[in-house]
Design goal:
162 residues, mainly alpha
Amino acid sequence: MKKILLTVTDWATSLTALASSLAAVTIFFELRHMDKHKNLEISMKLFEWAETERLGKAFRWIEKEFQYENFVKYNADVTGKFEVSDYPFNVEAYFEEVGFLVNKKFVDIDIIVDRLGVDIVSNWKKLEPWIIDMRKERNDKTFGEHFQRLNEKTMSYIRNNM
């Protein structure tokens, strides 16, 4: 029987390989934890923003009073009412930001749908004709695009998970 002698270099190499493997596993778990923390932090900021007084007023106005037929009538209805004329833009901007963060994978759709799913769908239904006309009026095909994709992802998530 042949004896195998390990030198100090052999032991050091083995320990280094083991330590590197453990470090890789630890880093993997830490990155997963950081990802969850990032989701939590971003979603909390979004929910905080949604609860501001100005955005709250905009949400309530869109829900209860916003009736959109066409761009000309809309402009006539809101002319001289600066705060009210801003409400659709406020709501669109909020969901555009949420949509951007979801679409760029900074926050997971399941977190957003859990808290905002109904609001995303109802606000998109109300604002979609206005957004389409704003795209034409501004000659900007990208106006509201993240909000639109957010609505599509929300509807898909709801169909597949609820």
